[in-house]
Each structure stands twice: as C-alpha cells, then as structure tokens.
Amino acid sequence: MSQPRSFTAGGSNAGRRRQHPTRKATQLALRRRAARDKNIVLALVPLVAIVAKIMVAFVLPPKYFYDNNRILGMSIDSATVDEWEGTYRVAADLFKSLNVFGFQTMLDWSFTLGVIFTILVFLMVIRVDSPDFLQSIFILAATGLLNIYVFNIGKDIIQFAFFFAVYIILILPIDSSILKIGLSCAVLYYESTFFREYYVLIAALVLFVFVLLSMFRLSKGDFNAPTVAAICVICFLGIYAMMVVAQAIMPSEYQQMIGLRAGYLTAFDGSADSQTLIKNWIPGDGLPIFMANYLVNAIRMLLPVELMLKGMYYLPFFVFQLLITFYMVHLLRRINKVHDKSQFLALCVFIGYALASFIFEPDFGSWVRHESATFPVLHLLILSNNQRLKFFAPKDDVLEGAVS
C-alpha cells in the first residue's frame, strides 16, 4: 500500500516541478520589463535636459533669470549691474574663481553646468531600483526643473552641491545612523557659516526629526493616517517650542523670523516672483498668529492648489510638488517598516529642510526651485521598491501568458 502513496507524492512533486519553469520565466520577464522601463527613463533624461535648455535659451523670458543674470554681471564685473552683498556676493565670487573658460553669458554657464550635473543625475538614477510609472514622472520632472532653474550660474546650484555632499554621506557603507546624520548636519551647518545662515536651523531640525522618527520606528504595529497626523503635530509643537526659546535668548533673530513675510511683501513687489508670493492669510502680529500662519502656509506649500488658479504655466510646479508630498506621506505611514537606513535618513533630512522652508521661503516658485535642488537627497526617499505602487506594477497573469 506504500507504493501508491509514493507514486502520488512523486507525481505531486513532478507537477510542482513542471510549474516551476513557468514561474521562473515569469520572474525573468518581470526583471526584463523592469530593466527595459529603467533604460527608457535613462534614455529620456538627456532628452528632457536638452528640451529644458532650449526653453532657457529661446522660450522663457529673462525675468525668470534675473538672479542668474545679476550674479553673472557681478562675476564679470559688469558696469551695468548693481552689486548686491550676502549670498549674491558669495555666488558671484565663486563663479568668478571657476570661470577658467572666460564665460560671458548666462547660456554659457547654463549649457556647461547642465551637461555636468545632468550626468550626475544620470549616475544617481542608475543606482536606484527600476522606477514605476509615477516614479519615472518624478525623475523626468526633476530633470526638467533642475536644468531650467538650478543647473545654471546662480545660488541654487551651490545648494545642490551641498545636498550632493549629504547624499554621498548617506550612501557611505557606514552602519551607524547617528554618525551619518551627524555628518549630514555638519555639512548643513557649514553651509550656514558662509552662505545661507538659516541652514543652521535646518541642521537642528534634521536632528529633531531624526530623534522623533527613530522613536516612532520602535513601534511594531501598523501605521495609518492618525500616525502621520501625530508626527505632524509633534513637529508643529517642536517649531513652536523653538520660537519660544528664540524669543527668550535670541530676540533679534526671533523678530527677523516673525517679520519675514511682511518684508517679502515689500521686497518682491513688482518682481517676477510677486505673482506667486506666499502671503499670510491670517492678519495680525505675535507668536500665536505666526504659528497659525506657519501651519496654513505649510499646507499651502505641500498642496499648492492655488498655483493652478494662476495659469497652466504653473502645472509642472503643481504636479512636482504633489508627487513629493504624496511620497513623503506614503513613506511616513510605513516608517517602522523602512529597513534602508539611507532612505530613512534621507527622509529625516528632507523633513527638517521642509520645516525650516515653511518659515523662510518667500514664494511658491522659489520653494519648488529650492526643493528640486535637494534632488540628491530627495530621490533616495522616493526612488525605491517600497515606494512603488501596486497600481503601476505589471500584472503577473499578463506576463505568464506572454511566456507560456
């Protein structure tokens, strides 16, 4: 009686073995499709960069590059440009020292820096997992925005370089997350010493977010929308506590932050950025009003619906921001299941950057432009397998039919 059972078991195993090649072929087809999709995106990156540079040269009006042209004029000692100090002087002096080829026009810098830094973007994208459709949209949108607004003579390319340094730290083969986040904050602090002073605040907020999210990662349960809301509330309370401390021990800096929006309204009136200026919706003075406007402005910047009311020109900015907000929330909802240390730390760095930007960014255009300059860090939290959406995943049954 044992022989039939043996025969049945053997037949069952043989059946399973007969199914195995099909599953293996399906998996191979999935890998081939993923590789093909990634190759298509990689091929489109330089094409998008070229289109963006054509727009810089022939389509977009000069008013969108007044910062770039001012820094260019200062770097070549043009008599027709009023020289400004601060970050303009830092950028002008830097490009003056780098101008070994004697560039005289903005387009000289735009095309040269576009080639160099698009190659860097290409190399960063090569490292990551094969993107799905939505991730591919993010890559191409970022490439376009970077080549229009960042890869040019100006201040934003300097910010990109600092975030690239943070990116290098995050991907180093170092096990200690504390060491990596400490080195990243050191880079941001160093930038604050000679370029953008508020980056010292970003460094402090990155540490705050790292501690906060590390505590949430200890939870073993499933995260949901209330979890994300709790993280946001704690971040808001952290900013409030920071402002209270600043009011007590740094009154001049406190007054500067409190009055930023009013100052922007005066300084940017009539400029190209005035159309997208982030004006406070709640009138009044004092810390409670400031914090109420901080919350409202944060929501407006993360979900810039009002940009769509200003014309179709702002559609790329709107879509790009929605993608970033979606992926950030999507990752926060599963923060205790993020096993990639580099991705977790990239999220901490970006949220710290965003929390400070809600205070300092004057307009929506500057916000999205500066945000795109964080691409070296930003792409680490977006372009990964755990950010791929099932909706865009290839269907196994379709592929099985293709390989059967």
From TrEMBL:
It comes from the Bacteria. The lineage of its organism: Bacteria, Bacillati, Actinomycetota, Actinomycetes, Bifidobacteriales. It comes from Bifidobacterium primatium. This is Uncharacterized protein. The chain crosses the membrane at residues 40-60, 106-126, 133-151, 157-178, 198-216, 228-250, 311-332, 344-360. Coiled coil: none annotated. The keyword Membrane applies. Keywords: Membrane, Transmembrane, Transmembrane helix. Residues 1-25 are annotated as: Disordered. Residues 1-11 have a biased composition (Polar residues). The keyword Lipoprotein does not apply.
